[in-house]
């Protein structure tokens, strides 16, 4: 059991938090600081426990959960009584190898049948600083079935779009288009954008290998870290500059050179810091000047 909890100072001013009821805010604070909370941000907490601690009815607890779910703050699996706070590791990052080991143990306690298991795996893949390498390999293996499901869903959506397009071209009435709403909602540029991000991530990973003389594989764990930074608004140039700068600083240090790896360089919190340190001209990153 933890003796203390951490609440980020921006909690109260976040636009989403300001839109929810006082009960939902109190539930969020309870989940961040109660005795049930752990450093993974994913734990078992039956509704009855919350109702007893806060002196609420079951209906009030469930309504507050719904509000927090609507703003994408958490996912609650009522069947198994487990909750996952989506941004917990973002604001409570893993700070040392001992915590990484503890996180591993906590993950294995989570029932693999909970509805948010794929979200939890992806969260750990992104926030993987200080996690054991063997555990990261396990996460990669566990994430594969979910990626296959996503690919199958994309294929089904593509097939639905093709069928709907054929129906439209045939001139048949609108009422025979069973998936018309889905078809209209689809973004034709989304798939192309995913391909572009992966291509950019591969370019960054190749640059890292060239600068450090290493051979990091183009695995989903490595690429997803880079893609996440690109999605958050950083450019390929930013990534290359960070790699070039940290390579110059760390390559001669036997201890620090170990951190010339995707898990450290593209960790969300650390990458923000590294970009803030940049003072070199962009040409230096492009040409690989030492």
Give structural notes.
- The chain folds into 3 domains: 17-121, Orthogonal Bundle (Arc Repressor Mutant, subunit A); 133-185; 190-283, no CATH class.
- Helix content is 60%, strand content 4%.
- The chain has helices at residues 22-33, 47-54, 58-70, 88-91, 97-109, 117-126, 133-170, 180-185, 190-212, 220-231, 236-250, 262-265, 268-276, 282-287; strands at 42-44, 74-77, 82-85.
- The protein has a 3-stranded antiparallel beta sheet.
- A hairpin with a 4-residue loop joins strand 2 (74-77) and strand 3.
- Helix 9 crosses helix 10.
- It is elongated and about 60 Å long.
- Residues 167-186 have low confidence and may be disordered.
SSE topology sketch:
Elements: H1 22-33, E1 42-44, H2 47-54, H3 58-70, E2 74-77, E3 82-85, H4 88-91, H5 97-109, H6 117-126, H7 133-170, H8 180-185, H9 190-212, H10 220-231, H11 236-250, H12 262-265, H13 268-276, H14 282-287
Antiparallel strand pairs: 1-3, 2-3
Helix pairs in contact: 1-3, 2-3, 6-7, 9-10, 9-11
Question: Could you provide a short overview of the structure?
Answer:
The protein is built from 14 helices and three strands.
């Amino acid at each position: 059991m933890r003796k203390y909890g951490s609440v980020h100072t921006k909690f109260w001013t976040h636009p989403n938090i300001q839109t929810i009821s006082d009960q939902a805010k109190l539930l969020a604070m309870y989940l961040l600081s109660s005795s049930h909370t752990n450093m993974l941000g994913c734990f078992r907490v039956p509704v009855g426990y919350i109702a007893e601690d806060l002196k609420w009815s079951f209906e009030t607890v469930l309504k507050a959960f719904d509000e927090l779910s609507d703003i994408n703050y958490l996912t609650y699996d009522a069947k198994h009584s487990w909750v996952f706070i989506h941004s917990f590791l973002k604001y409570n990052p893993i700070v040392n190898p001992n915590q990484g080991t503890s996180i591993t143990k906590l993950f294995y306690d989570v029932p693999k049948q909970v509805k948010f298991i794929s979200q939890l795996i992806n969260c750990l893949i992104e926030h993987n600083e200080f996690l054991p390498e063997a555990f990261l390999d396990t996460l990669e293996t566990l994430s594969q079935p979910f990626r296959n499901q996503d690919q199958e869903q994309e294929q089904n959506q593509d097939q639905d779009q093709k069928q709907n397009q054929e129906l439209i071209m045939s001139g048949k009435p609108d009422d025979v288009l069973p998936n018309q709403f889905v078809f209209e909602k689809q973004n034709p540029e989304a798939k192309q954008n995913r391909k572009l991000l992966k291509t950019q991530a591969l370019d960054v990973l190749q640059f890292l290998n060239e600068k450090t003389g290493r051979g990091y594989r183009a695995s989903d764990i490595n690429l997803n870290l880079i893609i996440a930074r690109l999605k958050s608004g950083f450019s390929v140039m930013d990534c290359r500059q960070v790699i070039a700068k940290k390579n110059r600083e760390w390559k001669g240090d036997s201890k620090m050179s170990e951190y010339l790896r995707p898990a450290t360089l593209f960790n969300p919190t650390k990458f923000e810091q590294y970009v803030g340190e940049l003072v070199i001209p962009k040409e230096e990153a492009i040409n690989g000047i030492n």
